[in-house]
Amino acid sequence: MNLTLLTWNARGISSSAACIGHLLSMPEYQSDIVILSEANLCAANVDILDRIHERYYGIPRTSNDVSPELLRHKVVALIKKDLFYSVSIPDNVSTDRLIAVQLHTDDTEVITILGVYMPSNNNLQEYDLILQQLRDAYSYYSRSGKVILCGDFNARINENPHYPVLKHKSSAIKEVIADLNLIPLNFLSSCKGYRYTFVPSQTTLDYILTDKTFAYNYVNYCEIFSTPESDISSDHLPIICTFNMPIKRYWSSRTPLSCDSRAWNKATINDLINYQLELTDTLNGLLDMSLDTQYDIDTYAEIMTLSAIISANNRILMKNHNLHLKPYWSPEVKSAHKNALRKRALCISEGRPRGMQHPSYKSYKDAKKVFKEVHEHAYDAFLLECQQELERTAEADIRLFWKVIRRRKSVKNRSVLRVSL
Length: 421
Known about the structure:
Layout: E1 3-9, H1 13-25, E2 33-42, E3 56-60, E4 72-80, E5 87-88, E6 98-104, E7 110-117, H2 124-141, E8 146-152, H3 164-179, E9 182-184, E10 192-193, E11 206-211, H4 212-218, E12 219-224, H5 228-233, E13 239-243, H6 269-284, H7 294-315, H8 331-349, H9 359-409
Parallel strand pairs: 1-2, 7-8, 10-12
Antiparallel strand pairs: 1-13, 2-4, 3-4, 5-6, 6-7, 8-11, 9-11, 12-13
């Protein structure tokens, strides 16, 4: 499959998360890598990225120069989970307005995607500084492969604005494009959809840039589009682009799959035979897979595990849930349990760190404590309700008993026993 890239100024992740999730659920806009600029995501809410869509996980842009309490992630990336082993995130980018995502293709090539959110204020010194860092990053990563620039550049390169600030930004971006021999893909004649990305002024501020040779040889499709949801959450339009570059796709351990809910004790001989046949057919396709490096071995093990789980889920019946085992399992307990499991999965994905100094570990322990408290409260409330029900039942039985006794006392015994001597 080819590489699909989507970039969009979402105007805040917290307010547009539902729209992004709906967008990625649409078949025509499903992308492998999504670069979201102007995310304005605080460090405490980073886990929202993993909840946007079940098939994606998020990568925030961290900065060592800003304390976690004050950090606002200005640009983030969403990566499709089947690219987990094909993607790496370099940490040598020095600004929180720039994120780098490196992707390994089937041809052992490396493509670096640089997502950027350039300053929108009138501080030209800051703008030039970020632009120079972007230029340096492009020069560095272009040594190892192709580089794609994308994001909100906050500059109108197809116009000649008269306002000094806009004119300076436009000239600076045009100079970088000329020096690096780049071309905006959304300016190609083959690009479909709208001819602008910023709706209020109908100008272009967002771009996908590559060098001309790469653009003419590998770009299959490009479109600036809008949906009713995207129009509500942002005044920028998304850009989607497809590149003719097959990439390695593997199942990721971030995808929680399990066959624990299968009723193996109730499986028939036919079920087991069908499971064996399906699993064998899948594993036969892995015989030609190379196992030269540790990376290849880990990937092979992951695919084998996934194949066994999927085959079991397809061929073995699911266990029926018994609602009477835990009747106190209220919606509050269920919500707290899901939150604890989500935090645990996040902690595992970061290598199971130990110690409250690690945010993922602390978050998991806090969620687990909350679940325990909610669980105990629901259990105690259920026991109290059962006790009160028994007392009401016993009281009703006592009243019925004395009612029968009193009724019996009011009846005169008119029978006479015959006594024979």
